[in-house]
Amino acid sequence: MSLTVLITGATAGFGEAIARRFVHDGHRVIATGRRAERLEALQQELGSALLPFPLDVTDATAAAALPGSLPEGWREIDVLVNNAGLALGTSPAYQANVAEWDTMVATNVSGLIRLTHAILPGMVERDRGHIVNLSSSAATYPYPGGNVYGATKAFVSQFSLNLKADLLGTGVRVTDLEPGLVGGSEFSKVRFSGNADKAAAVYAGTTPLSPQDIAEAVAWVVSLPPHVNINRMEIMPTCQAPGPLAIKRRG
Ligand code: NDP
Ligand code: 8X3
Question: Mean per-residue pLDDT for 144-162?
Answer without folding.
Answer: 98
